[in-house]
Design brief:
single chain, alpha/beta, five-stranded parallel beta sheet, 11 helices
Length: 245
């Protein structure tokens, strides 16, 4: 897409960034490099927070802050600067209490860059049935998403740690690491409120449904389902983000 007006409308100081990079091609390359590396940096940031390693936390948020300034995201850089200062002060209480706001900022940046760069949105589909995975992939792919498939919760968690995820279709009954463990991870890492999650399940017992809705999921899609229902779910995922704007 590469519509600079999109960035300008979202308060990105494009002109200042272009003075640094010299031309639009170099600028776009820097945006793509930042986009591709951002999620892995966030995972490291979360690990430093969890381990209360405030020295390395401060070093990493400083690095992210600097990169944001280089690409013109000056307002967002200020939020990272605040965390840098608190990291240097070893103020873990402030960092933990405000990390969710930092995560919302990160999601906002990733959404904007995703649209600007014309990247397909990553939809994570986790199910232990390859038949269901392939069926869903075909429908979702036709709606211009990039599908990340997982046969169990462990693979799903790996995708979450390495990619910007736009939405999740999550089976509950999977081997090794099940869907509820994935939900637990999303909650513990403050992702459950920022990524829309739709449960896909063949278990429609009251106990299972109530347990699923104990998390702030978007919806439950009972098996068997058809293309019409899937398309309706995809619309719900898009509406999730529109309500946040």
């Amino acid at each position: 897409m590469n519509d600079l007006n999109l960035l300008k409308q979202n308060n990105v100081q494009v002109e200042n960034a272009l003075e640094l990079w010299g031309n639009i091609e170099s600028y776009n390359e820097s945006l793509k490099e930042f986009y591709d590396s951002f999620i892995s940096k966030l995972v490291n940031l979360e690990n430093f927070k969890k381990e209360e390693d405030w020295e390395n936390y401060a070093i990493l948020v400083h690095s992210i802050k600097s990169e944001l300034k280089y690409i013109g995201f000056m307002n967002d850089a200020e939020e990272f600067y605040a965390h840098e200062l608190k990291g240097k002060e070893k103020d873990g209480n402030y960092i933990k209490e405000n990390f969710i706001h930092l995560r919302y900022t990160i999601i906002k940046i990733m959404k904007l860059l995703n649209e600007y760069l014309g990247e397909k949105k990553n939809l994570l589909i986790a199910d232990d049935s390859n038949l269901i995975l392939n069926y869903l992939e075909k429908i979702v792919d036709n709606n211009n998403y990039n599908v990340l498939k997982a046969n169990d919760g462990k693979e799903a968690l790996s995708h979450l740690k390495n990619h910007y995820i736009y939405g999740i279709l999550l089976d509950l009954n999977m081997p090794d690491v099940d869907g509820f463990e994935v939900l637990k991870y999303l909650k513990e890492h403050e992702l459950i409120d920022t990524i829309p999650v739709v449960i896909i399940t063949g278990d429609d017992t009251l106990e299972t449904i109530q347990k699923a809705f104990s998390y702030p999921i978007l919806d439950v899609l009972n098996k068997p389902f058809d293309e019409k229902k899937i398309n309706s779910i995809l619309v719900s995922i898009q509406n999730f983000y529109q309500r946040q704007n």
